[in-house]
Amino acid sequence: MKRHRAVLAVVLIMTVMFVVPVGMISGSASAAASKKLIYDEAGLLSPEANEELNELANQYGAQRETDIIIVTSNNPDNEDVMRMTEDFYDEHAPGYDKPHGNTVILTLDMRNRQIYLAGFYKAEHYLDDSRLDKIRNKISGNLTDGDYEGAFRKYIVTAYNYLDVRPGVNPDNILYKTWFQLLVSFGIGGVAVWSMVRNAGGRVTVNGQTYMDSSSPGVVQRGDQYLHTTTTSRKIERSSSSGSSGGGTTSGGHSHSGSRGSF
Length: 263
Hints:
Blueprint: H1 2-26, E1 38-40, H2 47-64, E2 67-73, H3 81-92, E3 103-109, E4 114-120, H4 122-126, H5 129-144, H6 148-162, H7 178-200, E5 243-245, E6 248-249, E7 255-262
Parallel strand pairs: 1-2, 2-3
Antiparallel strand pairs: 3-4, 4-7, 5-7, 6-7
């Protein structure tokens, strides 16, 4: 009977550990509002990629209550990329919670090959200048290689992850990585399951002292033996584009964080 209970406990724990985190990560596309978040005026994406990225931005933006927007332009009027972003926000009034609300925007100026990222309201605090610099550095290689779909996907996912990490801490810390949290959960669950299965068959009364001859204790020999030295290395991310951070205020009076650069 006890073993049956242990097996049921194993199934329950593994179900909770697997289903709940995966549900939190994947979310549900139906929960996201169907709105236009990809404005590919420069024609960098195929219709299929545009639709897929728009769905992803809707889904992830709903979970963070922030519109995640992409704007591309050939910039026929040769405007500054930061001004283009600010004017877009003023004119289109995006925002998950309200018009002119929580929003993060990535703007590509294809004429001058400039990029600008801006965070408004909630995103201004969770995606400050430093975090927007991190996002820009992560996608700059894709942009330089012409992999715009890959860059945009990485931007959406990274913004989504950073929006879940409280301001003032390093969002790339391993403690905030989903895979690490899942690994810890499985580890704790595994220990709990092992403990229940171990104790399911009754208490074990035999221990290390049971067969020991207490009349002749003592250490026969002790020594240390050098085996080997292990050296590890860590890759340091480097940006392939120049850039600078700094936000501002739109003509409509909406302050924002910012990061700009070339690609």
